[in-house]
Structure formats: structure tokens, C-alpha cells
Design brief:
By secondary structure, the chain is α/β, with parallel strands linked by helices. Helix content is 25%, strand content 21%. It has a single domain (41-217), classed as Rossmann fold, CATH 3.40.50.10420.
Length: 221
């Protein structure tokens, strides 16, 4: 096909499209308004527990740092963990290392080794109560792989991180970037790793933790 013939063919195609659009202009209706979020008071923890139950995610509440560390130790025993990795300074004041003194702590890097670690411990920057979704923002001392590679995961959820639903996510992301530096990545975690792609058979732990436990920090953490 010569260049001239190709040009005429292109003009014919574009002309046909223009005439079609002129005869029947493309109209995209406005999306329906999003329903107002359900309030998460007076007991947001009860509502979160209700949402997490069908996801096979237990919620345990701690009223102070000592209780939180004890719950983490209990979960580690239940999972028969002998090693763990955790986020850094954001969790330093909870006494987790002392509570897990019988376990080997692994650093987050190199991340390829974390799949051999039994337990990963991280902190939620946001908790979307409507869906039971944990929002984790990775960064220095907060390795993304800590909550993704070990077969068991614990996510600590501060009371101040509780949010109604995904409509609050843009506001949360704006806060996380307020210092001028965006998180390395943001993970939205709703339950343990699971898939039913093969013959609709639910399998857990195919590409991430097979078990997830949420520890609610019910104080001003």
C-alpha cells in the first residue's frame, strides 16, 4: 500500500468515526452518589470483629503495651513460630522483642529470606472498618515484605487508625505524604492470602500469609 493510499484510508476511517459520533454523541452518565458511610461508633471494635469473622481473621484487643506484647507472644505460640520479623521503630515501645525472646528475630532484608521466617509483625496506618481492610504504608524501617512473605502475619491496629470505609483512603494517603515523601508502597490487606481460581476450591497461603491476626491497640498509641 502506497503512502497516499494509506493516508486516504486513514481519512476515510476517521471521517466515518466523526460522522457516527456526530449522529449519536457519546454520553457517559454520572455515577450514582456513594452512600454515606455507616458510623463506626459506639463500638468500632465490635463492628470490625463482625466484618473480620467471615474472612477468618481473629481480632484480639489489648488495653496497654504489656497486653499487646503478651497477645503477640500468645499468637506466636499458637502458630508454633520459632522466628519472626517486625517493623522497626514504629513498634519499639511495645516490648515485642522481650515477649518473643525465645524466638529468632530476622531483619527485613534481604526480603527473599523472609519466606523462611515463621511470623511477620507490622502496624496498620489505617483500618477500613466497612471491609476489614488494613492499610500499611511501607518506608524506612517498615519493609513491605514483612507482612507479605512469612506464612503467618500479625497486624497491630491502633484505635486512632480506625476509619469508616474506603472513602477515607484519599484523606489518609494525603496525610501519609504530608511530609513531602510518599510511602514506598501502600498495601491494602483484607484477610489472609487466598484464591479460588482452580475449580473454585478456596486455598489459603498460595502467594502470601495463610493466617492473619489483628491485634487492636485500644489506647492512644
Amino acid at each position: 500500500m502506497s503512502a497516499e493510499t494509506e493516508r486516504h484510508a486513514r481519512e476515510d476511517i476517521l471521517g466515518t468515526l466523526r460522522r457516527g459520533l456526530a449522529a449519536a454523541p457519546l454520553i457517559v452518565p454520572s455515577p450514582p452518589a456513594r452512600p454515606a458511610p455507616e458510623p463506626i461508633t459506639p463500638d468500632p471494635w465490635a463492628k470490625l470483629a463482625e466484618v473480620l469473622t467471615p474472612l477468618s481473621v481473629p481480632l484480639r484487643l489489648a488495653g496497654n503495651p504489656a497486653e499487646a506484647a503478651a497477645l503477640v507472644a500468645d499468637i506466636a505460640r499458637e502458630r508454633k513460630a520459632t522466628s519472626y520479623t517486625r517493623w522497626g521503630e514504629s513498634l519499639d515501645g511495645l516490648g515485642i522483642d522481650e515477649a518473643l525472646s525465645g524466638l529468632t528475630r530476622a531483619e527485613a532484608a534481604p526480603c527473599r529470606d523472609l519466606s523462611k521466617i515463621d511470623l511477620g509483625i507490622a502496624l496498620a496506618h489505617g483500618v477500613l472498618v466497612e471491609s476489614g481492610t488494613m492499610v500499611l504504608a511501607a518506608g524506612p524501617g517498615r519493609h513491605r515484605a514483612a507482612s507479605l512473605l512469612p506464612p503467618s502475619s500479625i497486624i497491630l491496629a491502633p484505635r486512632k487508625a480506625l476509619l469508616e470505609d474506603v472513602g477515607k483512603l484519599p484523606e489518609l494517603l494525603a496525610k501519609l505524604t504530608a511530609g513531602g515523601r510518599a510511602p514506598a508502597c501502600v498495601n491494602l490487606i483484607s484477610g489472609p492470602s487466598s484464591t479460588a481460581d482452580i475449580e473454585l476450591v478456596l486455598v489459603r497461603g498460595v502467594h502470601g500469609p495463610a493466617s492473619l491476626t489483628i491485634v487492636g491497640l485500644d489506647w492512644d498509641f
